Prior knowledge:
Elements: H1 4-12, E1 15-20, H2 27-39, E2 46-50, H3 52-62, H4 68-79, H5 93-104, E3 111-112, E4 131-132, H6 134-143, H7 146-149, E5 156-163, E6 169-173, H8 181-186, E7 198-200, E8 203-207, H9 216-222, E9 228-234, H10 247-259, H11 264-288, H12 294-313, E10 318-325, H13 341-361
Parallel strand pairs: 1-2, 1-9, 2-5, 9-10
Antiparallel strand pairs: 3-4, 5-6, 5-8, 7-8
Amino acid sequence: MQSISTREKQSMQYETVLIFQGGGSLGAYECGVYKALKRHGIEFDIIGGTSIGAVNASVIVGNKSDEPAKALEEFWLDLSEGVTPPGLPDEIRPYFASMYSATFGNPKIFFPKWFVPSADYFMPYFWQYLYDITPLKNTLNQYVDFQKIRDPQKPRLIVTSTDIQSSRPSVFDSKYDEIEAEHVLASAGYPFYGISWTQKNGKYLWDGTLLSNTPLREVINASPKYDKKVYTVDLFPKDQHEIPNNMLEVWHRARDIMFTDKTENNARMSKIITRYLKLIREMHEILTSSSLDEKARSRLEILEKEYNKLASDRGGIINQIVRIQRHEHMHYLFEDADFSLATIRELIDRGETDAKEALAKNG
Protein backbone atom coordinates (compact mmCIF):
# COMPACT_ATOMS: atom_id res chain seq x y z
CA MET A 1 0.00 0.00 0.00
CA GLN A 2 1.28 3.49 -0.81
CA SER A 3 2.73 5.00 2.34
CA ILE A 4 1.91 8.43 3.68
CA SER A 5 5.46 9.60 3.05
CA THR A 6 5.19 8.59 -0.61
CA ARG A 7 1.93 10.49 -1.00
CA GLU A 8 3.38 13.53 0.73
CA LYS A 9 6.40 13.43 -1.57
CA GLN A 10 4.09 13.26 -4.58
CA SER A 11 2.02 16.21 -3.33
CA MET A 12 5.17 18.29 -2.98
CA GLN A 13 5.73 17.92 -6.73
CA TYR A 14 2.74 20.09 -7.51
CA GLU A 15 2.19 21.84 -10.82
CA THR A 16 1.38 25.50 -11.27
CA VAL A 17 -1.32 25.89 -13.92
CA LEU A 18 -2.72 28.88 -15.82
CA ILE A 19 -6.10 28.56 -17.53
CA PHE A 20 -7.29 31.06 -20.16
CA GLN A 21 -10.92 31.35 -21.27
CA GLY A 22 -12.21 32.19 -24.72
CA GLY A 23 -13.80 35.57 -25.31
CA GLY A 24 -12.71 37.30 -28.52
CA SER A 25 -11.25 40.75 -27.97
CA LEU A 26 -11.70 40.28 -24.20
CA GLY A 27 -8.57 38.14 -24.45
CA ALA A 28 -6.63 41.39 -24.14
CA TYR A 29 -7.64 41.32 -20.46
CA GLU A 30 -5.77 38.01 -20.15
CA CYS A 31 -2.71 39.74 -21.56
CA GLY A 32 -2.81 42.21 -18.68
CA VAL A 33 -3.29 39.41 -16.17
CA TYR A 34 -0.28 37.56 -17.50
CA LYS A 35 1.85 40.70 -17.34
CA ALA A 36 1.10 40.95 -13.61
CA LEU A 37 1.70 37.25 -12.98
CA LYS A 38 5.01 37.40 -14.79
CA ARG A 39 6.05 40.53 -12.91
CA HIS A 40 5.40 38.65 -9.64
CA GLY A 41 7.80 35.93 -10.80
CA ILE A 42 5.15 33.22 -11.16
CA GLU A 43 6.24 30.49 -13.57
CA PHE A 44 3.86 27.91 -14.96
CA ASP A 45 4.24 24.20 -15.62
CA ILE A 46 1.06 24.05 -17.71
CA ILE A 47 -0.80 26.73 -19.65
CA GLY A 48 -4.17 25.68 -21.04
CA GLY A 49 -6.70 27.61 -23.04
CA THR A 50 -9.52 27.55 -25.52
CA SER A 51 -10.46 29.94 -28.33
CA ILE A 52 -8.66 33.28 -27.81
CA GLY A 53 -7.30 31.76 -24.60
CA ALA A 54 -5.54 29.13 -26.70
CA VAL A 55 -4.14 31.91 -28.89
CA ASN A 56 -2.78 33.73 -25.84
CA ALA A 57 -1.33 30.52 -24.42
CA SER A 58 0.47 29.68 -27.67
CA VAL A 59 2.01 33.16 -27.88
CA ILE A 60 3.26 32.87 -24.29
CA VAL A 61 4.77 29.39 -24.71
CA GLY A 62 6.16 29.80 -28.22
CA ASN A 63 7.02 33.49 -28.48
CA LYS A 64 10.09 34.20 -30.55
CA SER A 65 11.58 36.82 -28.23
CA ASP A 66 11.86 34.87 -24.95
CA GLU A 67 9.97 37.76 -23.37
CA PRO A 68 6.46 36.30 -23.26
CA ALA A 69 4.68 39.18 -21.52
CA LYS A 70 6.13 41.74 -23.91
CA ALA A 71 5.41 39.54 -26.94
CA LEU A 72 1.79 39.02 -25.86
CA GLU A 73 1.20 42.75 -25.42
CA GLU A 74 2.75 43.47 -28.82
CA PHE A 75 0.51 40.80 -30.30
CA TRP A 76 -2.62 42.46 -28.90
CA LEU A 77 -1.63 45.95 -29.94
CA ASP A 78 -1.03 44.54 -33.42
CA LEU A 79 -4.55 43.04 -33.45
CA SER A 80 -6.14 46.34 -32.48
CA GLU A 81 -7.65 48.56 -35.17
CA GLY A 82 -7.17 52.29 -35.41
CA VAL A 83 -10.23 53.03 -37.51
CA THR A 84 -12.54 53.71 -34.58
CA PRO A 85 -12.34 57.47 -33.94
CA PRO A 86 -10.32 58.24 -30.81
CA GLY A 87 -12.10 59.97 -27.99
CA LEU A 88 -15.43 58.20 -28.40
CA PRO A 89 -17.19 57.75 -25.04
CA ASP A 90 -16.95 54.29 -23.48
CA GLU A 91 -20.71 53.88 -23.91
CA ILE A 92 -20.47 54.33 -27.69
CA ARG A 93 -17.06 52.94 -28.69
CA PRO A 94 -17.95 49.20 -28.38
CA TYR A 95 -20.96 49.63 -30.67
CA PHE A 96 -18.97 51.40 -33.38
CA ALA A 97 -15.94 49.12 -33.16
CA SER A 98 -17.88 45.84 -33.12
CA MET A 99 -20.04 46.87 -36.07
CA TYR A 100 -16.92 47.83 -37.99
CA SER A 101 -15.37 44.41 -37.27
CA ALA A 102 -18.58 42.62 -38.23
CA THR A 103 -18.75 44.47 -41.55
CA PHE A 104 -15.12 44.74 -42.62
CA GLY A 105 -13.35 42.13 -40.50
CA ASN A 106 -9.88 42.50 -39.04
CA PRO A 107 -6.87 42.01 -41.33
CA LYS A 108 -4.91 40.30 -38.55
CA ILE A 109 -7.66 37.88 -37.50
CA PHE A 110 -10.51 37.30 -39.97
CA PHE A 111 -12.05 38.55 -43.19
CA PRO A 112 -15.72 38.39 -44.29
CA LYS A 113 -16.82 35.90 -46.91
CA TRP A 114 -18.72 38.59 -48.83
CA PHE A 115 -15.44 40.25 -49.83
CA VAL A 116 -14.15 37.11 -51.56
CA PRO A 117 -15.61 35.79 -54.84
CA SER A 118 -16.77 32.18 -54.62
CA ALA A 119 -18.98 29.68 -56.45
CA ASP A 120 -21.71 30.08 -53.86
CA TYR A 121 -21.32 33.85 -53.48
CA PHE A 122 -24.96 34.54 -54.46
CA MET A 123 -26.31 31.58 -52.49
CA PRO A 124 -25.77 32.60 -48.86
CA TYR A 125 -28.20 29.93 -47.68
CA PHE A 126 -25.48 27.36 -48.45
CA TRP A 127 -22.66 29.23 -46.74
CA GLN A 128 -21.03 27.30 -43.90
CA TYR A 129 -19.32 30.33 -42.42
CA LEU A 130 -19.29 34.12 -42.56
CA TYR A 131 -15.69 34.78 -41.56
CA ASP A 132 -12.46 33.10 -42.58
CA ILE A 133 -9.73 33.09 -39.87
CA THR A 134 -6.81 32.40 -42.19
CA PRO A 135 -5.38 35.85 -41.29
CA LEU A 136 -5.11 34.67 -37.67
CA LYS A 137 -2.95 31.76 -38.83
CA ASN A 138 -0.59 34.20 -40.54
CA THR A 139 -0.45 36.41 -37.45
CA LEU A 140 0.26 33.42 -35.20
CA ASN A 141 3.12 32.31 -37.41
CA GLN A 142 4.48 35.84 -37.18
CA TYR A 143 4.59 35.75 -33.37
CA VAL A 144 4.94 32.06 -32.49
CA ASP A 145 7.78 29.64 -33.12
CA PHE A 146 5.86 26.38 -32.97
CA GLN A 147 9.10 24.41 -32.77
CA LYS A 148 9.78 26.06 -29.39
CA ILE A 149 6.44 24.84 -28.06
CA ARG A 150 7.80 21.29 -28.26
CA ASP A 151 10.74 22.16 -26.01
CA PRO A 152 10.25 20.20 -22.74
CA GLN A 153 11.78 23.13 -20.86
CA LYS A 154 8.84 25.29 -21.91
CA PRO A 155 5.48 25.23 -20.12
CA ARG A 156 3.25 22.43 -21.31
CA LEU A 157 0.63 23.82 -23.71
CA ILE A 158 -2.88 22.34 -23.75
CA VAL A 159 -5.38 23.55 -26.36
CA THR A 160 -9.00 22.42 -26.53
CA SER A 161 -11.49 22.27 -29.38
CA THR A 162 -14.78 20.52 -30.18
CA ASP A 163 -15.26 17.67 -32.64
CA ILE A 164 -18.27 18.68 -34.76
CA GLN A 165 -19.26 15.11 -35.63
CA SER A 166 -18.87 13.43 -32.23
CA SER A 167 -19.52 16.49 -29.99
CA ARG A 168 -16.53 15.41 -27.90
CA PRO A 169 -13.53 17.47 -26.84
CA SER A 170 -10.47 17.28 -29.03
CA VAL A 171 -7.45 18.14 -26.90
CA PHE A 172 -3.98 18.97 -28.21
CA ASP A 173 -1.12 18.61 -25.75
CA SER A 174 2.43 19.76 -26.48
CA LYS A 175 3.74 16.84 -24.43
CA TYR A 176 2.42 14.42 -27.04
CA ASP A 177 1.34 16.47 -30.07
CA GLU A 178 3.35 18.61 -32.47
CA ILE A 179 1.13 21.65 -32.08
CA GLU A 180 0.93 23.92 -35.11
CA ALA A 181 -1.01 27.05 -35.98
CA GLU A 182 -3.90 24.92 -37.30
CA HIS A 183 -4.40 23.35 -33.86
CA VAL A 184 -4.84 26.80 -32.36
CA LEU A 185 -7.18 27.85 -35.18
CA ALA A 186 -9.25 24.72 -34.52
CA SER A 187 -9.87 26.02 -31.02
CA ALA A 188 -11.09 29.41 -32.24
CA GLY A 189 -13.85 28.63 -34.75
CA TYR A 190 -16.92 29.92 -32.92
CA PRO A 191 -19.96 29.03 -35.09
CA PHE A 192 -22.47 31.44 -33.51
CA TYR A 193 -20.33 34.31 -34.81
CA GLY A 194 -20.08 32.58 -38.18
CA ILE A 195 -16.39 31.72 -37.87
CA SER A 196 -15.16 28.83 -39.99
CA TRP A 197 -14.25 25.43 -38.63
CA THR A 198 -10.82 23.86 -39.11
CA GLN A 199 -10.13 20.41 -40.52
CA LYS A 200 -7.22 18.72 -38.73
CA ASN A 201 -6.15 15.09 -38.47
CA GLY A 202 -9.30 13.92 -40.22
CA LYS A 203 -11.58 15.83 -37.83
CA TYR A 204 -13.76 18.89 -38.29
CA LEU A 205 -13.20 21.12 -35.29
CA TRP A 206 -14.98 24.07 -33.73
CA ASP A 207 -14.32 26.31 -30.77
CA GLY A 208 -13.62 24.56 -27.47
CA THR A 209 -15.99 26.95 -25.68
CA LEU A 210 -18.91 24.91 -27.01
CA LEU A 211 -18.06 22.28 -24.37
CA SER A 212 -16.13 24.22 -21.74
CA ASN A 213 -14.92 27.79 -21.66
CA THR A 214 -12.62 27.05 -18.71
CA PRO A 215 -10.74 23.89 -19.75
CA LEU A 216 -9.55 22.91 -16.27
CA ARG A 217 -11.12 19.46 -16.54
CA GLU A 218 -9.15 18.78 -19.72
CA VAL A 219 -5.92 19.87 -17.99
CA ILE A 220 -6.62 17.59 -15.02
CA ASN A 221 -7.30 14.65 -17.34
CA ALA A 222 -4.08 15.37 -19.23
CA SER A 223 -2.00 15.56 -16.04
CA PRO A 224 -3.82 13.79 -13.18
CA LYS A 225 -0.81 12.63 -11.18
CA TYR A 226 0.35 15.75 -9.34
CA ASP A 227 -1.37 18.26 -7.10
CA LYS A 228 -2.03 21.64 -8.67
CA LYS A 229 -2.17 25.31 -7.88
CA VAL A 230 -4.42 26.83 -10.52
CA TYR A 231 -4.77 30.41 -11.75
CA THR A 232 -7.90 31.04 -13.82
CA VAL A 233 -8.90 34.18 -15.71
CA ASP A 234 -12.67 34.74 -15.81
CA LEU A 235 -13.63 36.97 -18.73
CA PHE A 236 -17.37 36.69 -18.17
CA PRO A 237 -18.74 37.95 -14.84
CA LYS A 238 -20.46 35.35 -12.70
CA ASP A 239 -22.54 37.90 -10.77
CA GLN A 240 -24.70 40.65 -12.20
CA HIS A 241 -27.04 42.46 -9.84
CA GLU A 242 -28.89 44.40 -12.53
CA ILE A 243 -31.78 42.69 -14.28
CA PRO A 244 -31.62 43.00 -18.11
CA ASN A 245 -33.69 45.85 -19.55
CA ASN A 246 -34.09 44.64 -23.14
CA MET A 247 -33.52 41.61 -25.39
CA LEU A 248 -29.90 42.52 -26.18
CA GLU A 249 -29.14 42.65 -22.47
CA VAL A 250 -31.06 39.39 -21.97
CA TRP A 251 -28.91 37.66 -24.59
CA HIS A 252 -25.80 39.25 -23.10
CA ARG A 253 -26.54 37.93 -19.62
CA ALA A 254 -27.41 34.47 -20.98
CA ARG A 255 -24.13 34.43 -22.90
CA ASP A 256 -22.19 35.37 -19.77
CA ILE A 257 -23.83 32.56 -17.80
CA MET A 258 -22.98 30.02 -20.50
CA PHE A 259 -19.34 31.10 -20.67
CA THR A 260 -18.65 31.86 -17.02
CA ASP A 261 -16.29 29.68 -14.98
CA LYS A 262 -17.88 26.44 -13.78
CA THR A 263 -14.84 24.68 -12.34
CA GLU A 264 -15.77 24.77 -8.65
CA ASN A 265 -17.06 21.21 -8.95
CA ASN A 266 -13.70 20.05 -10.36
CA ALA A 267 -11.87 21.25 -7.27
CA ARG A 268 -14.51 19.84 -4.94
CA MET A 269 -14.47 16.41 -6.59
CA SER A 270 -10.67 16.18 -6.55
CA LYS A 271 -10.70 16.74 -2.79
CA ILE A 272 -13.47 14.17 -2.29
CA ILE A 273 -11.51 11.56 -4.27
CA THR A 274 -8.41 12.26 -2.20
CA ARG A 275 -10.45 11.82 0.97
CA TYR A 276 -11.70 8.46 -0.28
CA LEU A 277 -8.13 7.37 -1.02
CA LYS A 278 -7.05 8.27 2.50
CA LEU A 279 -9.94 6.32 4.00
CA ILE A 280 -9.07 3.27 1.91
CA ARG A 281 -5.45 3.53 3.02
CA GLU A 282 -6.45 3.66 6.69
CA MET A 283 -8.77 0.67 6.23
CA HIS A 284 -5.91 -1.22 4.61
CA GLU A 285 -3.61 -0.50 7.55
CA ILE A 286 -6.25 -1.81 9.94
CA LEU A 287 -6.76 -4.97 7.90
CA THR A 288 -3.06 -5.73 7.50
CA SER A 289 -2.64 -5.52 11.28
CA SER A 290 -5.41 -8.09 11.76
CA SER A 291 -5.43 -11.84 11.25
CA LEU A 292 -6.82 -12.73 7.83
CA ASP A 293 -7.32 -16.08 6.18
CA GLU A 294 -5.52 -16.92 2.94
CA LYS A 295 -8.48 -16.07 0.72
CA ALA A 296 -9.02 -12.65 2.32
CA ARG A 297 -5.30 -11.81 2.16
CA SER A 298 -5.15 -12.77 -1.51
CA ARG A 299 -8.11 -10.53 -2.24
CA LEU A 300 -6.49 -7.68 -0.29
CA GLU A 301 -3.33 -7.95 -2.39
CA ILE A 302 -5.38 -7.51 -5.58
CA LEU A 303 -7.15 -4.48 -4.18
CA GLU A 304 -3.83 -3.08 -3.05
CA LYS A 305 -2.50 -3.08 -6.63
CA GLU A 306 -5.60 -1.27 -7.86
CA TYR A 307 -5.29 1.31 -5.09
CA ASN A 308 -1.60 1.93 -5.80
CA LYS A 309 -2.35 2.55 -9.47
CA LEU A 310 -5.23 4.91 -8.66
CA ALA A 311 -3.32 6.81 -5.98
CA SER A 312 -0.20 7.09 -8.12
CA ASP A 313 -1.71 7.83 -11.53
CA ARG A 314 -4.78 9.90 -10.58
CA GLY A 315 -4.12 10.98 -7.02
CA GLY A 316 -3.46 14.65 -7.64
CA ILE A 317 -5.74 17.28 -6.13
CA ILE A 318 -6.32 20.99 -6.71
CA ASN A 319 -4.70 22.60 -3.70
CA GLN A 320 -5.73 26.16 -4.55
CA ILE A 321 -7.53 28.13 -7.23
CA VAL A 322 -6.70 31.81 -7.67
CA ARG A 323 -9.39 33.50 -9.75
CA ILE A 324 -8.85 36.79 -11.55
CA GLN A 325 -12.26 38.10 -12.58
CA ARG A 326 -13.16 40.78 -15.08
CA HIS A 327 -15.95 43.12 -14.03
CA GLU A 328 -18.22 45.14 -16.30
CA HIS A 329 -19.40 48.71 -16.04
CA MET A 330 -21.75 48.28 -19.01
CA HIS A 331 -23.50 45.31 -20.61
CA TYR A 332 -23.13 44.90 -24.37
CA LEU A 333 -23.65 41.65 -26.26
CA PHE A 334 -20.85 42.16 -28.79
CA GLU A 335 -18.23 43.60 -26.45
CA ASP A 336 -15.97 40.68 -27.43
CA ALA A 337 -15.80 42.04 -31.00
CA ASP A 338 -14.47 45.46 -29.99
CA PHE A 339 -10.86 45.56 -31.21
CA SER A 340 -10.47 49.33 -31.04
CA LEU A 341 -7.06 50.43 -29.79
CA ALA A 342 -8.55 52.31 -26.82
CA THR A 343 -10.50 49.22 -25.67
CA ILE A 344 -7.55 46.86 -26.09
CA ARG A 345 -5.32 49.12 -24.00
CA GLU A 346 -8.04 49.52 -21.39
CA LEU A 347 -8.54 45.76 -21.12
CA ILE A 348 -4.80 45.15 -20.72
CA ASP A 349 -4.61 47.75 -17.95
CA ARG A 350 -7.68 46.37 -16.15
CA GLY A 351 -6.37 42.82 -16.34
CA GLU A 352 -3.07 43.88 -14.86
CA THR A 353 -4.75 45.80 -12.03
CA ASP A 354 -7.21 43.02 -11.18
CA ALA A 355 -4.44 40.43 -11.16
CA LYS A 356 -2.37 42.49 -8.73
CA GLU A 357 -5.38 42.75 -6.40
CA ALA A 358 -6.09 39.02 -6.62
CA LEU A 359 -2.45 38.15 -5.88
CA ALA A 360 -2.40 40.47 -2.86
CA LYS A 361 -5.63 38.91 -1.58
CA ASN A 362 -4.35 35.36 -1.97
CA GLY A 363 -0.95 36.06 -0.46
